[in-house]
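Re: that backbone. Tokens:
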């Protein structure tokens, strides 16, 4: 520890080999797992057939959390200070409130240079978009705008993952679509593996 996304993908690769699960693979993963799938495809492209990414964060999500605040940021607002301290935890992979122990900054650098999925079928399921900004209201506009911009450009990023990418929006606004919109997730996985 700490882990990088490539180390997670390598561990998954070793696990699949040890379990003697025949390749190539279709993957489905929610949230951060989309980064692991992207890394797996980058490291072992011949072993990936396609993927369903379930409400993945856009590339740069954790990097933006850690870099959007002014240097030596100070505030008297307790809520804002807690929020700031939590976001700065991306610089500390061993932060006790986040047990995954992931080095997000190293992982971002790796993912930024990862190869695309080529022409593999990739289905991206996203939560229903709202007009609300990403951050709570107590986050100043000049800080919030970088995350809003990241999300505003997310669809373009997802469409460019593959020449065969498709973005589908759920009717649910909830992040955990595998719970909130199970039917859409199951339908998308079945569609992927039927190709």
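Recovered sequence:
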């Amino acid at each position: 520890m700490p882990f990088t996304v490539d180390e997670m993908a390598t561990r998954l690769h070793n696990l699949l080999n040890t379990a003697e699960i025949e390749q190539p693979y279709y993957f489905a993963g929610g949230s951060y797992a989309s980064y692991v799938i992207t890394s797996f495809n980058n490291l072992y492209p011949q072993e990936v057939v396609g993927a369903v990414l379930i409400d993945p964060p856009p590339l740069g999500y954790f990097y933006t959390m850690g870099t959007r605040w002014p240097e030596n940021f100070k505030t008297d607002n307790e809520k804002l200070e807690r929020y700031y301290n939590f976001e700065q935890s991306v610089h500390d992979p061993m932060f006790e409130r986040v047990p995954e122990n992931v080095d997000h900054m190293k992982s971002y650098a790796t993912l930024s240079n990862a190869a695309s999925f080529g022409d593999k079928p990739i289905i991206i399921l996203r939560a229903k978009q709202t007009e609300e900004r990403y951050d709570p209201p107590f986050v100043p506009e000049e800080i919030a705008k970088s995350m809003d911009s990241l999300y505003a450009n997310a669809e373009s990023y997802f469409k460019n993952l593959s020449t065969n990418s498709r973005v589908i929006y759920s009717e649910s606004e909830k992040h955990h679509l595998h719970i909130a919109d199970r039917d859409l997730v199951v339908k998308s996985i079945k569609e992927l593996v039927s190709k």
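Residues 63 and 105 are 6 Å apart (CA to CA). The first strand starts at residue 25 and ends at 30.
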